[in-house]
């Protein structure tokens, strides 16, 4: 089926078009720059930016795919989780299009959408698979037994998201927002073993109760304390070593949890998604540990890892192919939609 996907859960306005598992267009417009001076995504600013970006992005995607609105078989939209005001813009636009064009509408889960991105690969992963989704808004570990019918949340962050931790630590080091790419760059020149920062919830005792959960706020505080002590002593802060050691801790935590899930469930596949997947050390450590453990690792291209409309269109197409009915028209934006609700 020819499906249009609309994504507005955070700061990316994403419009994607797929034909089944074939990617035809993936237009992304981000309001990231507008949030930079606030040091994080401002919900009202994001919502207004979606209003402005949506129609131009839609027109660009239709042109890129060389299709018309009339030719579409269906429309898919992210209905949650995410920022309420931002989600509402996409949901409103999708409903307006669906009613005016008389097309079926599928309201889908943003997190499952990240997993659905892999359907666009020439050689998609088999199921079951473990999925690790790491971005500015979420850090979730999923057991996906079937993309359209069986997704289980194994664990998630109990405080900050991994990307949020990168952004906060960057800020305390005086680096601009978004901090992830900045820390990644500075870390390249540092020694990851220079400072042993804590690995939240990864110690033996935590691996019982919080086996698949994440915590990054203690790590952030540890970095802040360490830097503060140096500054108080009038010593120079070794930026590269701090960045490398912090990045090492995050990568270690993420992969320790993900590989524990693969081992526990006997699932030899791991799919990564979310903006933090751009991190060089996360990619490297994932490759190394999956190699050692005989786990097939999938890292989609970055344009399909960060928030985008193509993954939403892909999930919509998979739902249609599996025979799912369109969503009832009464659905709305749900900022806390659980991952088990694949379709709203
Ligand atoms: P959501 O959580 O709803 O998916 P988001 O906009 O926060 O939305 P993304 O756009 O996928 O998520 O990712 C942005 C996050 O990824 C930011 O926190 C950013 O710092 C982080 N990030 C980007 N590049 C890197 C990198 N190279 N290393 C670490 N973190 C990175
Ligand atoms: Mg974003
Ligand atoms: Fe996302």
TrEMBL record:
GO biological process, one term: tRNA threonylcarbamoyladenosine modification
Positions bound to substrate: 133-137, 167, 180, 184, 279
Cofactor comment: Binds 1 Fe(2+) ion per subunit.
Segment forming the signal sequence: none
GO cellular component terms given for this protein: cytoplasm
Record key words, sorted: Acyltransferase, Cytoplasm, Iron, Metal-binding, Transferase, tRNA processing
Gene Ontology MF terms: iron ion binding; tRNA N(6)-L-threonylcarbamoyladenine synthase activity
Reaction(s) the record says it catalyses: L-threonylcarbamoyladenylate + adenosine(37) in tRNA = N(6)-L-threonylcarbamoyladenosine(37) in tRNA + AMP + H(+)
Cross-referenced InterPro entries: ATPase_NBD, Gcp-like_dom, KAE1/TsaD, Peptidase_M22_CS, TsaD
Purpose of the protein: Required for the formation of a threonylcarbamoyl group on adenosine at position 37 (t(6)A37) in tRNAs that read codons beginning with adenine. Is involved in the transfer of the threonylcarbamoyl moiety of threonylcarbamoyl-AMP (TC-AMP) to the N6 group of A37, together with TsaE and TsaB. TsaD likely plays a direct catalytic role in this reaction.
Name this protein carries in UniProt: tRNA N6-adenosine threonylcarbamoyltransferase
Organism: Glaciihabitans arcticus
Gene: tsaD
């Amino acid at each position: 089926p020819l499906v249009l996907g609309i994504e507005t859960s955070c700061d990316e306005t994403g419009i994607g078009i797929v034909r089944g598992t074939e990617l035809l267009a993936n237009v992304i417009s981000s309001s990231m720059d507008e949030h930079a001076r606030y040091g994080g995504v401002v919900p009202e600013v994001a919502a207004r930016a979606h209003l402005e970006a949506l129609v131009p992005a839609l027109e660009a995607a239709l042109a890129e795919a060389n299709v018309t609105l009339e030719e579409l078989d269906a429309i898919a939209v992210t209905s949650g989780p995410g920022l309420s005001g931002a989600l509402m813009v996409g949901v409103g636009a999708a409903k307006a299009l669906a009613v005016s064009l008389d097309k079926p509408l599928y309201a889908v889960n943003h997190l499952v959408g990240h997993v659905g991105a892999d359907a666009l690969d020439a050689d998609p992963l088999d199921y079951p698979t473990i999925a690790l989704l790491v971005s500015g808004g979420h850090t979730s570990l999923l057991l996906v037994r079937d993309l359209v019918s069986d997704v289980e949340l194994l664990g998630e962050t109990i405080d900050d998201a991994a990307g949020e931790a990168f952004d906060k630590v960057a800020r305390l080091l005086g680096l601009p927002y978004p901090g992830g790419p900045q820390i990644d760059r500075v870390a390249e020149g540092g020694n990851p073993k220079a400072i042993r920062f804590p690995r939240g919830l990864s110690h033996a005792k935590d691996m019982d109760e919080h086996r698949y959960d994440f915590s990054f706020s203690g790590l952030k505080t540890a970095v802040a304390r360490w830097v503060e002590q140096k500054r108080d002593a009038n010593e120079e802060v070794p930026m590269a070593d701090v960045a490398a050691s912090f990045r090492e801790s995050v990568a270690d935590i993420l992969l320790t949890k993900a590989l524990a899930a693969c081992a526990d469930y006997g699932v030899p596949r791991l799919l990564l998604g979310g903006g933090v997947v751009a991190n060089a050390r996360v990619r490297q450590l994932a490759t190394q540990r999956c190699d050692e453990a005989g786990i097939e690792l999938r890292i989609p291209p970055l344009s399909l890892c960060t928030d985008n409309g193509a993954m939403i269109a892909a999930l919509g197409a998979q739902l249609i192919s599996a025979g799912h009915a369109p969503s009832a028209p009464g659905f709305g934006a749900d900022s806390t939609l659980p991952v088990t609700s694949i379709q709203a």
